[in-house]
Specification:
By secondary structure, the chain is an alpha/beta fold. The protein is built from ten helices and 22 strands. It has two domains: about 140 residues, Lyase, Ornithine Decarboxylase, Chain A, domain 1 (Beta Barrel), CATH 2.40.37.10; about 180 residues, TIM Barrel. Helices cover about 30% and strands about 25% of the residues. The structure holds pyridoxal-5'-phosphate. Pyridoxal-5'-phosphate binds next to β15 and α10.
Length: about 400
């Protein structure tokens, strides 16, 4: 497998990788060191614009900030999307610091502590309630602080998003209330101290099949209609989840966004009458940000062992765990990788590793790259689940730098 430079990036006449129109080496010189994550703000804006162009009018777009909570990136995304989805009190603080109005923030995730519930209720953030117990705690806190709690019920769907990298549905789960029990909990949400707003369903992540995503959206809309009738309530909004995947691996294809948009428009058009005034929202993380990010690390050593050539870099799984295949992947495959200092194939396959003293730290296996000590290596699709989803303190190496450009 050779050098893979995805769309959105290029090379100059000397073969150096260009990121946002400038040589990677120059970005590194500005930042002062490697490893370095660079996020291209123009690519982020283009991604959201492509979403808006393809999706039905009026569909809301939330950014799940767990994918990348780098503050300058959050500030930029806050100007593009309709809301942020958060998963902790720490993410609440980051979302508020990014300048996003609390009315545009929703908070999902099991194990919300009382102090996190209180901070969210005081701020006026929407709570996606995960259990009857959590609802009772939120109600007691809302009564104590004398403030209404905005709530939606997260429902554990009786179906999964088929073919997802991570399925979240169709199985016993810590996430949400089982559909069979949902109407009873929805009834408890009517009246003070709650303001009931709707439902949240999340059936899976990292999916590249238009048909599978549409099927789960259709199932979600049908379930929302059935629950609205069973509980006898109207739903101001339904968060349909997300699951849009990214083509990390050779042979993967970008999702066909226009086909998804057409299918979802049809599904919303056919919704049950009870959902006539419901606003639908999608909640996306990696699809919005992964492709805008590049992880740059420097080759420190080149060595041969047992006939295999290794490039040893100053990067590794402590920053970019996902690229080493250790973040929820069953079979390790290469993310797109390139030599950022020069183009062209090398003298045969080589393996790019990080500087950690563990065989898990493989950034790219048997790729046909040129590579000498001093070269910069670029790993693409690094904008999601990179620095914040990696064991940064493991083995005491310095943290990666991050820049939004
Ligand atoms: C509730 C919820 N929302 C959003 C996401 C974001 O997923 P992705 O980054 O794959 O879009 C996740 C991922 O785990 C999730 O659990």
């Amino acid at each position: 497998m050779s050098d893979r430079v995805p769309p959105g990036f290029g090379r100059d006449a000397e073969g150096r990788l260009l990121i946002a129109g400038r040589a990677a080496e120059d970005w590194v010189a500005d930042a002062g060191d490697t490893p370095l994550f660079l996020y291209d703000s123009a690519l982020l804006s283009q991604r959201v614009a492509a979403f808006r162009a393809a999706m039905p009018q009026g569909l809301g777009l939330n950014y799940a900030i767990k994918a990348n909570p780098f503050p300058p990136l959050l500030a930029h995304m806050g100007t593009l999307v309709d809301g942020f989805d958060i998963a902790s009190g720490g993410e609440l603080a980051l979302a508020l610091e990014a300048g996003v109005a609390p009315a545009r923030i929703s908070f999902a995730g099991p194990g919300k502590r009382d102090r996190e519930l209180e901070a969210a209720i005081r701020a006026g953030v929407l709570l996606n309630i995960e259990s009857a117990g959590e609802l009772a705690r939120a109600g007691a806190i809302a009564d104590r602080v004398g403030q209404e709690a905005r709530v939606a019920l997260r429902v554990n769907p009786p179906f999964a998003l088929k073919g997802s990298g991570m399925k979240m549905g169709g199985t016993p789960s810590p996430f949400g209330v089982d559909a069979a029990d949902a109407a009873a909990v929805i009834r408890q949400m009517q009246g003070r101290p709650f303001r009931f707003e709707g439902l949240h369903l999340y059936a899976g992540s990292q999916n590249l099949s238009v048909e599978a995503i549409l099927e789960s959206q259709r199932q979600t809309i049908a379930l929302a209609g059935a629950l609205s009738a069973e509980a006898g309530v109207t739903l101001a909004h339904v968060n349909l989840g997300g699951g849009f995947g990214v083509p990390y691996f050779p042979g993967d294809r970008e999702l066909d966004l226009p086909a998804l948009g057409r299918g979802l428009a049809e599904a919303i058009g056919d919704r049950p009458a009870a959902l006539g005034r419901t606003r639908f929202v999608l909640e996306l993380g990696r699809w919005l940000v992964a492709g805008a990010g590049v992880y740059l690390c420097r080759v420190i050593d080149r060595k041969v062992s047992g006939g295999e050539t290794f490039l040893v870099t100053d990067g590794g799984l402590h920053h970019q765990l996902a690229a080493t295949g250790n973040f929820g992947t069953v079979i390790r495959r290469n993310y797109p990788v390139a030599n950022a200092s020069r183009a062209g194939p090398g003298a045969g396959p080589l393996t790019v590793v990080g500087c950690l003293c563990t065989p898990l730290d493989r950034l790219a296996d048997k790729v046909d790259l040129a590579g000498e000590p001093g070269d910069l290596i670029a790993l693409f699709h690094a904008g999601a689940y990179g620095r914040s989803a990696s064991p940064e303190r493991f083995l005491g190496h310095p943290p990666a730098l991050e820049r939004l450009v």
